[in-house]
């Protein structure tokens, strides 16, 4: 077996990892999870191989997305990374030795690697019977958990063992809590390692797709998608004593009565203005959201979608890091150019003209009005008021969002 030191030396990165953040820290507010595998930016070289992102010391959790179909595991999709996979003999199931090697490398660098199940294109609807749910939980554990000499189940990641499973179901399912509970039992029977079970619900509470899992299954953390919804990060109002829409407080209350009362809640945000539709925030607004969320006992850090977006958006990861440390740069400072906090191979801060590397651009034709600071005043499909309270102006953030600042 190759030792951790030897593995890092082969990559020429051993000194770099002396200060690396460990994997998921249950008692920390500084966890940063960034999804990999979907190349949502869809630009040339916008998604590099998994191992290249593990040289970044800021990130300690990487969910690999997605296993789109549980009952037909041939539907594993990792965008352009799948080009380096083959198929098992007489099967359509992918065999991915490059991802196998990268998972092992990333784990040797102290990262937590999860396999995310579902995604927006998941259409199976769960399982028709409890026994079917149990069967597929056992099958997935054989495919991605510790190898067993008594199992002939093909393993897409070979000898690599993931650190747990992440649930990202966005439509109602059946018997999914039974499936998740079975995975929890299988993982907890291993005395040598703590495996993680996580979920990524939408911010409206209760989550319409995964409420049974959230209410019945002990999870280690959840990464709430505070975007694409009325309750997202852009709805946070810094001057409001009570948040009417941004509902982190609601999820903190859920955490206190959850099956695992020590569950952590991660603030999920898009990695760039073009990521995930709508809901991107940056600069002083992002700092304000982080400062607010850090007040809550359940707060455990930040989730971002996804690496391909973050690496092309100068400074956004740096702003998140600074916010998690409680170090505020002051209004506007976080929107100026400057490299991200990526290490060798990360590619952060290499592009210009996107994300926080640009100064905000006021939207033309908006005068004095009723919208308070940070309130929405424009964006595709928006039909509300566009005039901002003095002295603020409506500022374009993306095709989908403009707010008063």
Explain how this protein is built.
By secondary structure, the chain is α/β, with parallel strands linked by helices. The protein folds into two domains: 21-359, TIM Barrel (Alpha-Beta Barrel); 361-405, no CATH class. The chain is built from ten helices and 15 strands. It has an eight-stranded parallel β-sheet. A four-stranded antiparallel β-sheet has the order 11-14-15-13, with no helix packed on it. Strands 3-4 form a two-stranded antiparallel ribbon. α8 links the parallel β9 and β10. α8 packs parallel to α10 (316-324). It starts with a helix and ends with a strand. Mean pLDDT is 83; it is low at 1-20 and 331-366. Residues 1-22 form the signal peptide. This is chitinase. InterPro entries: CBD (IPR000254), CBD_sf (IPR035971), Cts1-like (IPR045321), GH (IPR017853), Glyco_hydro18_cat (IPR001223), Glyco_hydro_18_chit_AS (IPR001579), Glycosyl_Hydrlase18_Chitinase (IPR050542). Residues 335-356 have a biased composition (Gly residues).
Question: What topology does this entry show?
Answer:
Layout: H1 4-11, E1 31-34, H2 50-53, E2 61-67, E3 86-87, E4 94-95, H3 97-108, E5 112-118, H4 130-144, E6 164-168, H5 176-188, E7 196-199, H6 211-216, E8 221-225, H7 248-256, E9 264-270, H8 283-293, E10 299-305, H9 307-310, H10 316-324, E11 361-362, E12 368-371, E13 376-378, E14 394-398, E15 401-404
Parallel strand pairs: 1-10, 2-5, 5-6, 6-7, 7-8, 8-9, 9-10
Antiparallel strand pairs: 3-4, 11-14, 13-15, 14-15
Helix pairs in contact: 4-5, 8-10
